[in-house]
């Protein structure tokens, strides 16, 4: 919506001079909440629309499927034959992958989640693991109650174990599912952290699936200061700053989102950001960033960072440019 604010007035809204620490923290938390909600919605839509699967042994059967109704799915999921379980789980996943109005409530009320969690442990059947992880991903993208149903069925630990799967398609779906769970709230985020997910996620950032791993790490650092510190202690700041210089702009943006959430924390987090060399690549990114990359929320947590006048100069210019375009 157009605004009559002068550019200087718009830019002033990002400045914290003269405001106490409590006010600054509240404003940074508000930005982070908006950021977190936007990312959660975006990710859920993308997950339901996934259709391309890499040439992995676990995905050979993924384009083969049968159409089943809900009762047939229930019967198949509860069968003892792994082939029937696979067909029924795949059919459930396809229902849950509809772009509009996926029947999350029906699948949850049918009591299928505990069996889907069991299928995560079927190491001899990676295709079944893949479909179960994908179905749980989409269930966890729903309401908090639906995410809770996934958590209470014991999904977190087997999902973390799948982060070490030799099949990248299986591994990737486990990452997405954990990202949805961690993005739902601080209690579930604590459970993901306590299951030792972060070291596995950081290892995957350097693999062939960096984007979902980065998003899941980003969901973790949107949490409390303690949760973010646990992630820092696990080594996220040894990985994220270098990704600001990644040749793929999508990876740069994911790293910037995560670092922006770290910057919303207390002074000790900001000092750790500076110590690990975050500011130089961030300055370079601000100099060269394109309009498609820009989102004012991406940079809104940074104006209170005091060191380096060059950083503040480029941040001021970029925020003015972004808010003028909005």
Give a structural overview.
The chain is 65% helix and 0% strand. The protein has 326 residues and is mainly alpha-helical. It folds into 2 domains: 1-48 and 235-326, no CATH class; 54-213, Leucine-rich Repeat Variant (Alpha Horseshoe), CATH 1.25.10.10. The radius of gyration is 21 Å and the shape is elongated.
Supply the number of structural domains: 2
Overall pLDDT = 78
List SSEs in N-to-C order: HHHHHHHHHHHHHHHHHHHH
Strand content: under 5%
CATH architecture of the largest domain: Alpha Horseshoe
Distance between the termini: 8 Å
Radius of gyration: 21 Å
Spans of at least 5 consecutive residues with low confidence: 1-19, 48-63, 318-326
Q: For this structure, what is the CATH class of the largest domain?
A: Mainly Alpha
Number of helices: 20
Helix content percent band: 55-70%
- Looking at this structure, what is the CATH superfamily of the largest domain? Leucine-rich Repeat Variant
**Overall number of strands:** 0
- Shape by Cα distribution: elongated
Index terms:
2 domains, elongated, mainly alpha, 65% helix, disordered C terminus, Leucine-rich Repeat Variant, 326 residues
């Amino acid at each position: 919506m157009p605004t009559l604010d002068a550019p200087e007035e718009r830019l002033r809204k990002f400045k914290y001079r003269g405001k106490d620490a409590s006010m600054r923290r509240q404003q940074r938390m508000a930005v982070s909440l908006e950021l977190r909600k936007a990312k959660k919605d975006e990710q859920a839509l993308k997950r339901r629309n996934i259709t391309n699967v890499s040439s992995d042994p676990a995905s050979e059967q993924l384009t083969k499927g049968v159409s089943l109704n809900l009762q047939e799915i229930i019967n198949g999921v509860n069968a003892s034959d792994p082939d029937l379980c696979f067909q029924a789980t795949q059919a459930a996943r396809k229902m849950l992958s509809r772009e509009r109005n996926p029947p999350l409530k029906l699948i949850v009320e049918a009591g299928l989640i505990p069996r889907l969690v069991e299928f995560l442990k079927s190491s001899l059947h990676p295709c079944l693991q893949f479909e179960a992880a994908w179905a749980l991903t989409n269930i966890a993208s729903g309401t908090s109650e639906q995410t809770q149903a996934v958590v209470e069925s014991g999904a977190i630990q087997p999902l973390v174990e799948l982060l070490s799967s030799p099949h990248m398609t299986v591994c990737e779906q486990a990452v997405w599912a954990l990202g949805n769970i961690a993005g739902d709230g601080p209690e579930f985020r604590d459970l993901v952290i306590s299951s030792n997910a972060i070291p596995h996620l950081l290892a995957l950032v350097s693999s062939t699936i960096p984007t979902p791993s980065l998003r899941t790490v980003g969901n973790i650092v949107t949490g409390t200061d303690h949760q973010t510190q646990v992630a820092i202690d696990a080594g996220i700041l040894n990985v994220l700053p270098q990704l600001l210089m990644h040749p793929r702009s999508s990876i740069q943006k994911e790293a910037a989102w995560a670092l922006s959430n770290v910057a919303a924390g207390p002074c000790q987090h900001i000092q750790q950001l500076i110590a690990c060399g975050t500011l130089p690549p961030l300055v370079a990114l601000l100099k060269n960033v394109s309009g498609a990359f820009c989102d004012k929320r991406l940079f809104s947590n940074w104006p209170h960072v005091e060191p380096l006048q060059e950083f503040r100069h480029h941040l001021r210019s970029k925020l003015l440019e972004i808010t003028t375009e909005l």
